[in-house]
Write a structure and sequence with these properties.
alpha/beta, six-stranded antiparallel sheet, ATP hydrolysis activity, single chain, Cell division ATP-binding protein FtsE, ATP-binding, 12 strands, ABC_transporter-like_ATP-bd, 245 residues, AAA+_ATPase
Length: 245
C-alpha cells in the first residue's frame, strides 16, 4: 500500500548522463508539502536529476523509483503524458507564447489538456493568477512583463493541473537576486499549504541562505548525490527523508 502523502520515492537509484555517473545509490522520500533545494555547481547534474523524475533521463534498472504512483522503471512511453500532466514543471527561460497574453497562455494549456468548459477554465486561470499575485496583469503580453512577472506566470501555468509535485529547474537563473527571492517565496508558500511538494534546482547561495530549506547536494567532482540536510521537520511533524549510501 502506498504511504500517505508520498509523491516521490527513490530507493537505491542511480542515473548516468552518457558515460558520466550523476548520482548513485540514492534513497529519497518526498511528501506533499515538502520543499527541497537541489544544489550544486553549474553542470553538476541538477537538471538531470529533475529530468529523471519526469522520465526524460532514464534511471538505471536497479532499486525502485516511484513518482505519483508511476513506476519509472516499468513506465511505458504511452504513459509519459499521463505522468507529466500530473507534474508542474517550471523552467529557467519561462517558455511563454509571445503572441498570447498571460491569460491566453494559461487558457491555451487548459484547452490542450482537454478542459472544454469555458467557465471552468476561467475560474482555474483566475485562481492560479491570484496564487502568484498576477491577477491584475493577466491581459499583458510577455514582452510587457518583467522577468520576475513572466516567471510568476510560468508558475501559474504549472499550477493549472493542481500538481502534487512541482519541479523547478533554476527558476531564478535569469533573474536578479531580489526578484529570485520573491519567486522562491512563492514556491515555498505553495509547498507550505501541504498539498504540493516542490523540488527546486538552484546554485544561488544567497537564496538558500536567506530562505533555508532541506538540500540535496550534487558535488562537482563526485558521481554520487550527497545530502546537505538529511532531515527537516515541519510544524505538522512530516519529515523529508534522504539517505545516501
Amino acid at each position: 500500500m502506498a504511504e500517505k502523502n508520498v509523491v516521490l520515492r527513490f530507493e537505491d537509484v542511480s542515473v548516468s548522463h552518457y558515460e558520466n555517473k550523476i548520482f548513485e545509490h540514492l534513497d529519497l522520500t518526498v511528501r506533499a508539502g515538502d520543499f527541497i533545494y537541489i544544489v550544486g555547481p553549474v553542470g553538476s547534474g541538477k537538471s538531470t536529476l529533475l529530468k529523471s523524475v519526469y522520465a526524460e533521463t532514464p534511471i538505471e534498472k536497479q532499486g525502485a523509483a516511484n513518482v505519483l504512483g508511476f513506476d519509472l522503471l516499468k513506465l511505458k512511453r504511452s504513459s509519459l503524458p499521463r505522468l507529466r500532466r500530473q507534474l508542474g514543471i517550471v523552467f529557467q527561460d519561462f517558455r511563454l507564447l509571445e503572441n498570447k497574453t498571460a491569460i491566453e497562455n494559461l487558457d491555451f494549456v487548459l484547452r490542450a489538456t482537454g478542459v472544454k468548459n469555458k467557465q471552468i477554465r476561467k475560474e482555474r486561470i483566475t485562481g492560479v493568477l491570484q496564487e502568484v499575485g498576477m491577477e491584475l496583469k493577466g491581459y499583458k503580453y510577455p514582452h510587457e512583463l518583467s522577468g520576475g512577472e513572466q516567471q510568476r506566470i510560468a508558475i501559474a501555468r504549472a499550477l493549472l493541473s493542481e500538481p502534487k509535485l512541482i519541479l523547478a529547474d533554476e527558476p531564478t537563473g535569469n533573474l536578479d537576486v531580489e526578484t529570485g527571492l520573491g519567486i522562491t517565496r512563492i514556491l515555498q508558500k505553495i509547498a507550505s499549504k501541504g498539498k504540493t511538494a516542490v523540488l527546486m534546482a538552484t546554485h544561488n547561495e544567497r537564496i538558500i541562505r536567506e530562505l533555508p530549506a532541506a538540500e540535496l547536494y550534487i558535488g562537482a567532482n563526485k558521481p554520487e548525490l550527497s545530502v546537505a540536510s538529511a532531515s527537516q521537520e515541519r510544524e505538522d511533524g512530516v519529515s523529508i527523508e534522504t539517505n545516501n549510501i
